[in-house]
Amino acid sequence: MIDYKFFDQVNRAFDKAAAYTRFDSGLLSQMKSCNDILHITFPLERDDGSIEVIHGWRVEHSHHKLPTKGGIRYSLTVNEDETMALAALMTYKCAVVNVPFGGAKGGIRINKNDYSDQELERITRRFTFQLYKKNFIGPGSDVPAPDYGTGAREMGWILDTFRQISSDINAEGCVTGKPLGQGGIRGRTEATGRGVFFGIEEACSNKEDMNKIGLETGIEGKAFVVQGLGNVGYHSAKYLTEAGAIMVGIAEMDGSIYNENGIDLKKLTDYRRETGGIVGFEGAQTLEDSNTVLEAKCDILIPAALENQLNAENAQRIKAKIIGEAANGPTTSEAHEIIKKRGALIIPDNYLNAGGVTVSYFEWLKNIQHVRFGRMGKRFEEDSYKRILSVIEAVSDRKFSDKELKYLAKGGGEAELVDSGLKDTMVNSYNEINEIRKKHEVDLRTAAFISAINKVGEIYEHMGIFP
Length: 467
Ligand code: GLU
Description:
Layout: H1 6-18, H2 25-32, E1 36-45, E2 51-60, E3 68-74, H3 80-96, E4 102-108, H4 117-133, E5 142-146, H5 152-165, H6 188-204, H7 207-212, E6 223-227, H8 231-242, E7 246-252, E8 255-258, H9 265-275, E9 285-286, E10 300-303, E11 322-324, H10 333-341, E12 345-347, H11 349-352, H12 355-369, H13 378-395, H14 402-408, H15 414-440, H16 444-461
Parallel strand pairs: 3-4, 3-5, 6-7, 6-10, 10-11, 11-12
Antiparallel strand pairs: 1-2, 2-4, 7-8, 8-9
Helix pairs in contact: 1-3, 1-16, 3-16, 4-5, 6-8, 6-12, 6-15, 12-15, 15-16
């Protein structure tokens, strides 16, 4: 078994796709390389007074569009190679879904559970300060967001720290995924999972593809397994179950559970809140270890945790017909080939989990526009609908009830507009990469890379090279 590094894995997928594009090797290698890599160490004073050295990274992969964009993760897996790979994936992901940013990624090598809230706040604020000093954060330069182990709370700390040292009028746009009261946007927390749902829904509506893998079209009745019940996994599971899919298995840090008749998500999350884990949940059978359930019988497998989870070791035993990559880089290139050979449909990460950055884009737009989406038009729309409905009432016997009027005359507020923009993005991008897939007879991952390389490459061609 060859142990490819993560950044190499991304580049292998890139190279495969690059063969279908017109760019020469010089431009391609320029496109692949990371523009700026920052490794920071700083001391943390722990609550007991001891000092610990913290390691953090920020990588800006591509400046072909600015700002660069990508999350900050808190995990013990964080290192330079991982951050480079994830930053590169952000560049391609943004291009696939037409979000006008370059790619970046950051990470701090800690297990967040080992630190108190006060310590996490000190770490986050100090990291932000270091990023600022090196010009690695700002609404026009580099804009972080949540990732594995971080959320709205950390983004709020980042904004507050940035604000104290910068008087930029667009300061709110220096980070996305913020709490609503600090310039966040409705729908950002749910966005990646919501996007995963829209992507899988679109893939499952394709009759030809479903026939090939022996499934009916539609989400209803499909059995799925999810790995990781964090923000992304939880919301993917929530929207899939709401649409009638059946959650048969879950893998978490403490173990995995399975029930072919379906597992109740609400009861399970209550159980986890009480016990701190999923193992022993009454409504399902507890399996040997965290990875066993990945090999269970199901229609859709959703890895929503970390990278390299489907690998040469377990790929042969994976039975799912659809792999929905909600995490970044969950399938190694070797596993990809094994699963593909079996005929399964892999919906790749560089498309499927782009809902997060798409709504981050909307949040950033809101911040630099200094106005909430829907603020100007919502009431105007509602009044127009009401006028149309009253004409319908006047020319027919139909009288609308108050409930009907409320539903029919609803204007687009922020939540509705974000959801509409996200769905449009996921549906259009799927069809865009699906066309490329058919044209070149490649898989969806290669198609997504071809789409990204073509879009980014065209910009690189017109970028000046300083003598
Ligand atoms: N961390 C998320 C990702 O990997 C979101 C990035 C963002 O919103 O900038 O796509």
